Amino acid sequence: MPTMSVKKPSKPWRVTVTGPEVETTSSFTSEAKTYAFIRASLGADSPAESAKVEQWEGGRWWHFETVTADEIRAAQATDHATEK
What we know:
Elements lengths: L12 E7 L2 E7 L2 H11 L8 E8 L2 E9 H15 L1
């Protein structure tokens, strides 16, 4: 259940990264920083499997999207293939 708060947090983006041996939550000031963290956290050598992205809006945390490691690794593989 979302945590309720009256004041907008200074970091209105939150990511919870999960996997068989990892679960961590981090907060960010922008969407760009959030997704840079997700790309690094779900990259090829990571044990993490998914990242739940939440955004603070209208006085509460909203589920923005869930990103899987497979999605990130496929995008990174495509990026590396087009660089060559």
